[in-house]
Amino acid sequence: MTSVDTTGERGHEGHGHAGHGYLAEKDKFIRRLKLIEGQARGLQRMVDEEAYCIDILTQVSAMTKALESVGLGLLHDHMNHCVVEAARESDEAANAKVDEAMKAITRLVKS
């Protein structure tokens, strides 16, 4: 999967998918994302059926927490795999991966 930064540009050339840290738990992430997809459909249905706004907001909150959980899981795998591998390569590579991770963390907490 190619990442998209906040400017919408695709990045990370040369990062083949064979090295992504999350691959060991890919099935778990896919299951969680499918559940979130179902939550989104449920929210659409609630709005379509004119459900009580507080009930909708409760489900929005649950969906937001579920997405945050996926993001934190991916971040954990990135730190334990990509950052560790970069640290073995060189200080410069490690610093670049830490900077990249910090930008991702910043995006997660600002959303």
Q: Could you explain the architecture of this structure?
A:
The protein is 72% helix and 0% strand. The longest helix has 37 residues, at 53-89. By secondary structure, it is mainly alpha-helical. Helix 2 (53-89) packs antiparallel against helix 3 (91-110). The chain is built from three helices and no strands. The radius of gyration is 17 Å and the shape is elongated. It has a single domain, classed as Metal-sensitive repressor, helix protomer (Methane Monooxygenase Hydroxylase, Chain G, domain 1, Up-down Bundle).
Number of strands: 0
Mean pLDDT: 83
* Unreliable parts: 1-14
The secondary-structure element order is: HHH
Total DSSP helices = 3
Query: What's the structural domain tally?
Result: 1
Give the strand content. under 5%
Q: Helix coverage percent of residues?
A: over 70%
The largest sheet is:
none
The level-1 CATH class: Mainly Alpha
Architecture in CATH? Up-down Bundle
- The secondary structure category is mainly alpha
The fourth-level CATH homologous superfamily is Metal-sensitive repressor, helix protomer
Question: What structural keywords apply?
Answer:
single chain; 111 residues; mainly alpha; Methane Monooxygenase Hydroxylase, Chain G, domain 1; 3 helices; elongated; disordered N terminus
